[in-house]
Design goal:
Blueprint lengths: L1 H8 L9 E4 L15 H19 L6 E6 L2 H10 L3 H7 E7 L8 H8 L10 H10 L1 H5 L14 E2 L4 E2 L4 H7 L6 H12 L9 E7 L3 E6 L10 E5 L7 H4 L1 H5 L8 E7 L10 H15 L7 E4 L1
Helix pairs in contact: 2-3, 5-6, 8-9
Length: 299
């Protein structure tokens, strides 16, 4: 994250003046409006206040909202939970980096067998229960619109699971307590990706081998699967990264720009020189028609 922040500062942005951060504890999730969700709801309320404060501190200029990964889903929720007049007044542009709009197959690996996330000498099973306990991880389960019924995502000697079988999958891996929150909180939350009516730019990597299908043997889910890879950024599948392009193609008054960066991974987008140059160029372009907008990052 530091290289991205430093690159933004080279444009003249200054911390706590017109550059603000909004980190989040991803152990906690979010729920649809009307459902109790103290931590997630409070975060969105605080983020809204930060956006307003940033604008007021900069002569009322609307802000550029930038997110990475799951932060993009939170940012979209922020926009759609506030009225159009608020968005028009306070949001100049939304830039989403590597956003998993439609979830990831990699998340099914995390729940089934644990995920060492590339850290050497770490037994994935030792972190599996902790990863299962992070509420936001359920939000990243593959979404039905991006992963069709006929596409198996996990295959065992006796069963196969598509995005339509997540509840059964959670039971079969021994995480039955995840079924109720998935069905009552996550499915309503991801049912629609509503166009917010503010300009959106999605920037992400592609051409990096990304888990597409997990094959388990007779030893079950306590053993790491054989993985068939497809396109994506190494973490998020290409269908998920491109979800807005498909779902918003008929949305009126919705500007959407998609920038693909060949060979850039999910995390390297925050530090790779080519990726940083593209992000900075996009910010400069957005600011070219007015004086610089304050900058709020949701991570």
């Amino acid at each position: 994250m530091e290289p991205l922040v430093e690159s933004i500062q080279q444009l003249g942005y200054k911390d706590s003046q017109n550059l603000f951060g909004a980190p989040y504890d991803f152990r906690y999730g979010l729920a649809p409006e009307g459902h109790p969700c103290n931590v997630g709801t409070t975060f969105l309320e605080n983020l809204k206040q930060l956006v307003e404060n940033a604008s007021h501190a900069n002569d009322g200029a609307p802000v550029i909202l930038v997110s990475h990964s799951l932060g993009g889903l939170f940012a979209l929720q922020l926009l759609n939970r506030n009225p159009p007049a608020w968005r028009e007044q306070y949001i100049k542009h939304f830039i989403a980096l590597s956003a998993p709009w439609g979830g990831t197959v990699d998340e099914m690996l995390t729940f089934a067998s644990g995920n060492a996330l590339g850290v050497p000498l770490v037994n994935p099973l030792l972190v599996r229960n902790e990863q299962r306990s992070s509420e936001s991880n359920l939000w990243l389960m593959p979404r039905r619109k991006q992963f069709p019924l006929e596409t198996p995502l996990v295959v065992t000697p006796k069963s196969s699971y598509s995005s339509f079988d997540i509840s059964i999958f959670l039971k079969d891996i021994g995480f039955e307590e995840g079924v109720h929150p998935y069905e009552t909180r996550i499915l309503p939350l991801v049912e629609k990706l509503v166009a917010p009516g503010v300009p959106v730019t999605c920037i992400f990597g592609n051409g990096v081998p990304t888990p597409e299908t997990l094959y388990y043997g007779e030893d079950g889910f306590d053993k790491q699967p054989e993985i068939v890879y497809g396109d994506g950024d190494g973490t998020v599948n290409i269908a998920s990264l491109l979800a807005l392009e498909d779902e918003w193609k008929d949305a009126k008054d919705q500007k959407l720009k998609v920038i693909k960066l060949a060979g850039i991974s999910h995390t390297n987008i925050l530090k790779d020189d080519t990726a940083l140059a593209q992000i900075i160029d996009e910010i400069s372009t957005i600011n070219s028609d007015i004086s610089s907008s304050p900058f709020v990052s949701s991570l």
